[in-house]
Amino acid sequence: MGVEIRVEGLTKRFGSQVIWNDVSLTLPAGEISVMLGPSGTGKSVFLKTLVGLLKPDAGAIWIQDRDLTQMRERDLYEVRKLFGVLFQDGALFGSMNLYDNVAFPLREHTKKSESDIRKIVLEKMDLVGLTGAESKLPGEISGGMRKRAGLARALVLDPEILLIDEPDSGLDPVRTSYINQLFIDLNAQIDATFLIVTHDINSTRTVPDNIGLLYHRHLAMFGPREMLLSSEEPVVRQFLNAQTIGPIGMSEEKDADELASEEGQELPPLPPIPLQLSTSDGTPRRGERPAGDWCRANGITPPPGSFQSQNAGVPGVRHSEPTPTAEAPVA
């Protein structure tokens, strides 16, 4: 069962450099959230701060009515057991086979017998599709398999919160699609609270229940997927739709001359909002909402063509049911 994470006024600096300032958001229990941002905006730092590996300069992180920023190290150690973390490269021990890598947290943090450990490890490896690969070393497998092994290791302590850093880094589009579907299916099975850091716009448009965007040392926006995908806020619109017109430049922010040269240029229309991925077997998730629900509730007319399946007739691909009134003005 996932737990809510409430972040209030979080600020982090390294010396005189402000990474982000006064960040406040709530990660809903059991839902999938994605954090985006241009390179260098502190997304990985945000993950490390949430799990207590880095201490913020100001603010609070509330989990189960306890503020992580005020905990003693011994108490923080116990709270960290709520977390599972998937690092960018899997962070596997190169000298251990996959079985021992996945078993490591159980041997380190529990007093379970080897027979119990074996049962749990094989169950988690089966969950991520690695049955039969237990004896392989990390150097003998693909990047996608390493990420899945890292995910199995993150799952062995049955975490209530799963932090995932750049899961698509180094993966081709097909493997990225597989791991996206795996996240959706896992969320339905374990009901944990997911926070994924990614640059992949297609994943962001189809996987999460909520999206956040870090930009220029602050949280530009955080909210339901449909809210950000229909947003006219310049930085949100530019980043989520991979457009060149907007405040983001090659060095994060464009200067005044660059922005002035764009005045009067017509922005391309917002692309249709795609259907959110659904589970492989149709099992409902806690964070899943009917397509177009947020738009209807907030009087927003989504871009034409929104919520139409782009995989109709493709075997093995499941999506939420389209909303018939999605293209009509929303009352």
From TrEMBL:
PANTHER family: INTERMEMBRANE PHOSPHOLIPID TRANSPORT SYSTEM ATP-BINDING PROTEIN MLAF (PTHR43023:SF6), PROTEIN TRIGALACTOSYLDIACYLGLYCEROL 3, CHLOROPLASTIC (PTHR43023)
Keywords: ATP-binding, Nucleotide-binding, Transport
Gene3D superfamilies referenced in this protein's UniProt entry, alphabetically: P-loop containing nucleotide triphosphate hydrolases
Keyword Nucleotide-binding: yes
GO molecular function: ATP binding; ATP hydrolysis activity
Bias (Acidic residues) ranges: 254-265
The name this protein goes by in its record: ABC transporter ATP-binding protein
Domain ABC transporter as annotated: residue spans: 5-241
PROSITE patterns: ABC_TRANSPORTER_1, ABC_TRANSPORTER_2
InterPro entries (alphabetical): AAA+_ATPase, ABC_transporter-like_ATP-bd, ABC_transporter-like_CS, P-loop_NTPase
Region (Disordered): 253-331
